[in-house]
Amino acid sequence: MYVSGEESAEQIKLRADRLKIHNENLLFLSETDIDNVENAIEKNEPDFVIIDSVQTMYADEITSAPGSVSQVREITARIMKMCKQKQITTILIGHVTKDGNIAGPRVLEHMVDTVLYLEGERYFAYRILRGVKNRFGSTNEIGMFEMQNEGLQEITDPSSVLISEREEGTFGSVIVASLEGTRPILLELQALSTPTVFGLPRRTAGGMDYNRLVLLMAVLEKRAGMNLGSQDVYLNIVGGMKVNEPALDLGVVLAVASSFKNIEIPKEIAVIGEVGLTGEVRSVNMIEKRVKEVEKLGYKKIVIPETNKKVLKENYKLDIIGVKNVMEALKFLNLK
User: Fold this and answer.
1) CA-based, 20 to 30 A from 227: which of 3, 23, 88, 281?
2) Contact 285, 219 (CB under 8 A)
3) Is 302's pLDDT higher than 70?
4) What residues pair up with 116 in beta bridges, in sequence order?
5) What pLDDT digit, counting tens, does each position of 323-333 carry?
6) Cβ atoms within 10 A of the Cβ of 303, count?
7) Percent of the chain at pLDDT above 70?
8) How far apart (Å, rounded) are the C-alpha atoms in residues 324 and 250?
9) pLDDT of residue 212
10) How far is CA 186 from the centre of its chain?
11) Helix, strand or coil, per DSSP, at residue 326
12) Which CATH number describes the domain made up of 161-332?
């Protein structure tokens, strides 16, 4: 049963026709009164209920407006009580603010069993379903989808999609193995280094922390002797992905060095590793999953921390190069 307080039956019908949804087992109710919603659920006893949205529902005994703290608390409590008694799986859709947080009182997040965010950028077709609270399992999992004319379609192999358009002969491009929860994803990092025309060089980071980029560039200047103080440096994670994982550090360093030196990083090489302030390449977690993902997509070589290489037990078809510090990685790729 789909309960809509946001749109009328006519509007939902137009969307259903566009998405080619014709299902006899799908019940629709356009209602905002929680009493009527409860009566419909008790009468039809559906297996699955969607309330869209909880901020539009109201209870007559509460005098405040729909969406207020008291209304949301009452609506959520009544729906939870009824659906748990009847063992009906229920999804409450909530509004979000411009910052991406659930609008209104935080009490809604505390009451429910699971909180899921469907994230996406306006100019990208990809959407990520991410769990931030889960009483029944781990929150370290994501689902990746693509918005098409027929609605959201699952992307079963995100890595191949995110790196499919990488070209030959480009400077400042490198493949890194990131991790979303327990799911490995290969990403393409692109860096561009150009001489600055002003006294103060610019640094721009798209998809990662700006301060992290500045820190890694300082390591590259100090430990590798690259004069980046006269360069504007731009970094971007292709596909609109946003990653804060330190395992991308070595990829960032090598991408910037590649652009600065105008030397291409071979297309068949992937990179993993966290970089410390002294230039050492530190180990990362779940190294086996990352290496398997790289191997699955046909890469021939992978650069990883030396400490991670020592603990790998399985035999892989690709060459695994262990490095202790940034200098070793630069020398291996002829960037020094």
Assistant:
1) 281
2) no
3) yes
4) 131
5) 999 999 999 99
6) 25
7) 95
8) 11
9) 95
10) 12
11) helix
12) 3.30.230.10
SS3 of residue 199 by DSSP: coil
pLDDT at 143: 84
| Residue 100 token pair | 């991406």
Two tokens, residue 85: 């008694």
Decide: 126 and 155 in contact? Cβ < 8 Å.
yes
Q: What is the mean pLDDT of residues 279-305?
A: 92
Cα 49 to Cα 22: distance, rounded to the nearest angstrom: 18
How far apart, in Å, are the Cα atoms of 46 and each of 12, 49, 62?
19, 7, 27
DSSP letter string, 264-323: BPPTTEEE--EE-TTSBEE--S-HHHHHHHHHHTT-SEEEEEHHHHHH--S--SSEEEEE
How far apart CA 99 and CA 96 sit, in angstroms, is 8
Q: Three-state secondary structure along 161-196? A: HHCCCCCCCCECEEEEEEEECCEEEEEEEEEEEEEC
Residue 229, token pair as written in the block:
């103080």
**What band does 239 get if pLDDT is binned at 50, 70 and 90?**
confident
Gap between the Cα atoms of 8 and 28, Å rounded: 10
The DSSP-derived string for 245-259 is -GGGHHHHHHHHHHH
Structure tokens at 325: 């510090």
Looking at the chain, the whole-number percentage of residues with pLDDT higher than 90 is 58
Asked if residues 162 and 239 have their Cβ atoms less than 8 Å apart, the reply is: yes
Q: Using alpha carbons only, give the angle 32, 37, 41 rounded to the nearest 5 degrees.
A: 155
Split at pLDDT 50, 70, 90, the class of 144 is confident
| Superfamily grouping for domain 2-112 | P-loop containing nucleotide triphosphate hydrolases (3.40.50.300)
Which two tokens mark 115? 């909180």
Q: Return the DSSP state at 96.
A: B
Instruction: Indicate whether 277 pLDDT > 80.
Output: yes
26: its two tokens: 């799908």
Please list, in sequence order, all residues whose beta carbon lies within 8 angstroms of the beta carbon of residue 27, skipping any fewer than 6 positions away: 1, 2, 44, 46
> How do residues 181-204 score in pLDDT, each as one tens digit?
777 889 999 999 999 987 889 999
**Alpha helix positions (H), 101-246:** 107-111, 158-162, 210-224
Where are the chain's structural domains?
2-112, 161-332
